[in-house]
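[Automated response] Your request has been received and processed.

Submitted sequence:
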Amino acid sequence: MVETSTRTIHWVEVLARSDWTARAAAHRARLAPYVEPHLARRGARVKHPVNDFLFTYYSHRPAQLLRWHPGFGVELADAAEYEGIRGYRDGSVTDEFLAERRVLLETLLKLLRATASREGHFGCFGLHEWAMVYRLTPEQVRHADWPLRLGATGTDRVVESHRIACSHFDAYRFFTPPAEPLNTLSPRSDDRASFEQPGCLHGNMDLYKHAFRLSPLVSSDLIADCFELAWDIRTMDMQAAPYDLAELGLDPIRIETAAGKQEYAAAQRTFAERAAPLRARLIAECERLLTLAARAC
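Generated structure:
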């Protein structure tokens, strides 16, 4: 720990320029295959209902995702490129910035701990996507360029013949008005910690959101790990959705059948297993950062 006249800097290592530029380049190369096609589609005004989601639904811009950060506690030597980036001074993230994020850290830690403490539920079968188009006309459907695999009547019948138990507010809030009362749960924006559970696809996809909201306090390596998990989850989520996406090379998971339900639940368990260590890493980072913030006060 080094004290100056303006702040107290906590670091565990100083990265030489050759070291951190190599890591930054590797990070960019890792994520470019996801980002560059999205930017090309955006330039051509072509939409992709699956692969554009992480860039349009979430607020982390492509340029932000591609920029590598070492996380709080690491100083980058000879890093003039980072001057002017919010939170940085002299190659490292400041204590002042950490203090600004204290409430966010506390809120996320509460949510992440609550989610991790529960057993996963694997019986939702992705019906949230079906409830989002329930009783809509074709032009009202969010992905109107893609037909419903079972048609409007068949889609409505699936919704009406199943028990819907969506625990994730950011999925539930997109239910159509006729579908809302069909949900056996009533999650709200202010009680996420009371509902979210580790089997939920959207809850696990949101690990990416939780990670990038902590940037640049956490390593971009963790953000990239969460991004790749979210990417895979989104793909499977849309395979189980009511849309016919065969032209995109996506085989449907027919959750209206017994075999499709088994396939969905198995994939959901696999994603929960992948998400658990990422959630644990985020919890550890929140705990570490809050400890350091308390020491700096």
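Summary generated for your ticket: Residues 164 and 239 are 18 Å apart (CA to CA). The chain has 13 helices and six strands.
If you did not submit this request, please reply to this message.
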